[in-house]
Design a protein that fits this description.
single chain; alpha/beta; Rossmann fold; 3 domains; 7-stranded mixed sheet; 5-stranded parallel sheet; 16 helices; 19 strands; elongated
């Protein structure tokens, strides 16, 4: 039996040296096959032991008839067997010295009274055996350090600083996949399922002390011990941001949550007030979860709510101003010395105030100088810049083309030469624009680090590929000013909470 402490640190759950899949299958339409395939595809770094008494090899790996026959100690066992077999499987895990069992099997408390009795029997066995349970009714666990994607769906999350707890496996794994497309990375993920043993607050406490976790993300349907969770959250939010999307706030949503994961939901007002008091950043949509958590990972917190806006065109500046004020941010007037400096870079008819209207100037050097002038301004705490990072392809639409110079004026030849010139011009312009864009990207990163202020980019392109590319390079970029304003406000709210905590501590 393992000499490791069977009931403490969750590190071995997310970074196990050895992993067994009980219920491994040769049938591609079975979870025991799909999960094993996902683990292999992700490149799991530890020792992997498929368990199946009827086959010698599955997916090229030697298979063992039971967990006791595996030659080494097992840190984590995934259980993908029928519900009736789970208690005996857990007992065998305990005899082997397994620390954690991830129970994929469903039909427990989420399924009614009979399922509740089965879950109780499983937990009685687990406690006697000294095995910690993830789930049941879970879709698995991801750990970036171990390259472990022990998940039911085929998801290979990008690596980053977010650790994610989801009481819905479906939503959780789909958001992992969406995060990959958006350029948002994760350190750890757990589909907590019914939380018969390890509950949301225990994962949260672990992530709060985990140096690889920069921000915690939670999809929540309900809590069995709300006070315990909030006590833990209040401690964790002093160290790092916690972003929560709470579903099941309505009466119908509460009933749905109970039938889905066995969670106890509650009223919207109670949760909202409790989250605010605990320093939790609450969001209202599933995609907002991702982009707010990612902003916490990549951006410094603003010292205050005074926001500067710089815009390539005046209309977007007006929209961004409305969005910022609607979100609760201030748009202060600029000091005279800053206006004078900006006037040396811009035409005389620029707005001469905040927002800074670049009046469509194409001089990217002026863009960079104006941005720096705004960021270094003492009366500005954070900047939203709109349209000053171009999508190079969008900038080359219908370029001006001169005469073909062929001396032959036939429609076919003329159109052919015009097309060739457009293609050549586009390549040259694209290279120039890409170089200018790289300079702006480098400038934003340098200014963010030098002045320790958040800079949020809003691109002129609605091509998600551009925003994803910028996110991968460390720049928080959106395609609407409303998202930018919302993010800046969430950053400020969290900073204000931390400041209030420091003042209370100093009294």
């Amino acid at each position: 039996m393992s000499t490791k402490n069977a009931c403490s640190d969750l590190e071995d759950l997310f970074n196990p040296e050895s992993l067994a899949l009980i219920g491994a299958s040769t049938k591609p339409n079975k979870w025991g096959y799909i999960i094993l395939s996902n683990i292999i595809t992700c490149g799991y770094k530890g020792k992997l032991y498929p368990i199946n008494p009827n086959h010698n090899r599955i997916l090229g790996l030697h298979t063992y008839p039971n967990i006791d026959s595996a030659p080494d100690e097992i840190d984590v066992a995934m259980v993908a067997t029928p519900i009736s077999t789970v208690p005996e499987v857990i007992k065998e895990c305990g005899e082997k010295g397994v620390r954690f069992a991830i129970v994929i099997s469903a039909g427990f408390s989420e399924a009614g009274e009979e399922g509740e009795r089965a879950e109780l029997e499983m937990m009685q066995t687990a406690r006697k055996a000294g095995v910690r349970i993830v789930g049941p009714n879970t879709m698995g666990v991801f750990g970036a350090k171990a390259s472990m994607s022990a998940l039911m769906p085929m998801v290979l999350p990008s690596r980053g600083g977010i650790s994610f707890i989801s009481q819905s496996g479906n939503i959780g794994t789909q958001l992992l996949g969406l995060g990959e497309k958006m350029g948002i990375g994760f350190s750890k993920f757990v589909s907590s399922g019914n939380e018969a043993d390890i509950r949301c607050e225990e994962y949260l406490e672990y992530f709060g002390n985990d140096p690889e976790t920069k921000a915690v993300l939670i999809y929540m349907e309900g809590l069995d011990d709300g006070k315990k969770f909030l006590d833990v959250a209040k401690d964790v939010t002093k160290k790092k941001p916690v972003v929560v999307f709470k579903a099941g706030k309505t009466a119908s949503g509460s009933r749905a949550a109970k039938s889905h994961s066995g969670s106890l939901a509650g009223s919207r007002e109670i949760y909202n007030a409790a989250f605010k008091q605990s320093g939790i950043t609450e969001v209202s949509t599933s995609t907002e979860m991702l982009y707010i958590a990612n902003a916490f990972v990549h951006l410094p917190l603003p010292r205050g709510d005074r926001t500067g806006i710089i815009s390539w065109g005046g209309g977007w500046g007006v929209v961004a101003t409305d969005a910022c004020e609607a979100a609760g941010l201030k748009i202060p007037n600029l000091p005279e010395d800053v206006v004078r400096e900006l006037s040396t870079y811009l035409p005389p008819y620029w707005s001469k105030n905040n927002p800074v209207d670049l009046v469509g100037t194409l001089n990217m050097n002026s863009h960079r100088k104006c941005l720096e002038a705004l960021v270094k301004c003492e009366s500005i705490d954070g900047v939203i810049c709109l349209g000053i990072i171009f999508d190079s392809h969008a900038s080359t639409t219908n370029p001006t083309v001169g005469q073909t110079g062929t001396g032959v004026d036939t429609p076919i030849i003329t159109k052919t030469m015009e097309r060739l010139e457009r293609q050549a011009t586009s390549k040259v312009v694209n290279k120039v624009m890409e170089r200018l864009k790289r300079k702006m990207v480098s400038k934003i990163i340098r200014l963010t680090n030098e002045y320790n202020k958040p800079i949020i980019a809003v691109t002129v392109s609605y091509d998600d590929a551009l925003n994803t590319k910028l996110l991968k390079e460390g720049i928080v970029a959106y395609n609407t000013p409303e998202k930018g304003a919302n993010t800046m406000h969430k950053l400020f709210e969290y900073k204000r909470y931390l400041s209030n905590q420091e003042q209370d501590f100093g009294k």
